[in-house]
Amino acid sequence: MQTLSPNMPLHIASETILKLLRARFHHKCQGQIVHNTSRALDLEARLARLEERSRHAQINDESLCDSCHARLGTKLFAMYPDDTVVCYKCYRRQGESTSVTGRNFKQDILIKPGWLVMD
């Protein structure tokens, strides 16, 4: 705007002013798109975390550890993202990222389709 002289007729300056306004509007729209996409991804991550935390495992006296096949009964146990259930001893031995099936969840991330994930 400073490059426009005060003596310039409005009909000539209008093209430059229009380009400036369009560029500002475009930049604002891009910022809103990035912001809303970021919010949507955050919301999806929070929803996925909530769903993971609300998973239930029904353990009774007959339930067995998927690793050592010991009865769980009243023992502490852990449940991996692939729904395998192990006693706490096996969980500590295998680590929190490796399942009984050999799947490493830090390297081979388990992606559950959400409303933003498209195949």
From TrEMBL:
Short name of any one Pfam family annotated for the protein: zf-Vps39_C
> What GO terms describe the biological role, i.e. biological process, of this protein?
vesicle-mediated transport
Q: What keywords tag this UniProt record?
A: Coiled coil
Q: Where is the Vacuolar sorting protein 39/Transforming growth factor beta receptor-associated zinc finger domain?
A: 54-94
Coiled coil, from the record: 33-60
Question: Record's InterPro entries?
Answer: Vam6/VPS39/TRAP1, VPS39/TGFA1_Znf
* PANTHER family reported for this sequence: CNH DOMAIN CONTAINING (PTHR12894), VACUOLAR SORTING PROTEIN 3 (PTHR12894:SF43)
Give the protein's recorded name: Vacuolar sorting protein 39/Transforming growth factor beta receptor-associated zinc finger domain-containing protein
Taxonomic path: Eukaryota, Viridiplantae, Streptophyta, Embryophyta, Tracheophyta
